[in-house]
């Protein structure tokens, strides 16, 4: 499905698909599954922006040394 979407999309936005075969329509039902899902979302966000954050921090450190 994602391959077809990537083939036909017309923008440069990232396309992600996460499939959890152990969950139902409303997500996981275990005691900590909500926390695991939230942690996964944060991990994806941090992974996407990690390079920008690293570059910004390096520039700030360079400016502070002057």
Structure notes:
The protein is an all-alpha fold. The protein has a domain at 22-66. 61% of the residues lie in helices and 0% in strands. The chain contains 2 helices and no strands. The longest helix is centred in the C-terminal third of the chain and has 33 residues, at 33-65. The radius of gyration is 18 Å and the shape is flat. The relative contact order is 0.08. The model has no long low-confidence stretch (mean pLDDT 82).
Q: Termini distance? A: 52 Å
Number of DSSP strands?
0
Using the CA coordinates, give the radius of gyration.
Answer: 18 Å
Helix content: 55-70%
Q: Could you give the order of the helices and strands?
A: HH
Summing up helix and strand content along with how strands pair, one would put the structural category as mainly alpha
Please report the number of helical segments.
2
**CA-based shape:** flat
> Uncertain regions: pLDDT < 50 for 5+ in a row?
none
Proportion of residues in β-strands: under 5%
Average pLDDT taken over every residue: 82
Biggest sheet, in brief?
none
């Amino acid at each position: 499905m994602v391959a077809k979407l990537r083939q036909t999309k017309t923008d440069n936005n990232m396309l992600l698909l996460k499939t959890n075969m152990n969950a139902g329509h409303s997500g996981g039902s275990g005691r900590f599954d909500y926390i695991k899902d939230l942690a996964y979302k944060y991990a994806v966000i941090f992974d996407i922006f990690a390079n920008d954050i690293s570059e910004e921090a390096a520039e700030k450190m360079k400016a502070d040394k002057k």
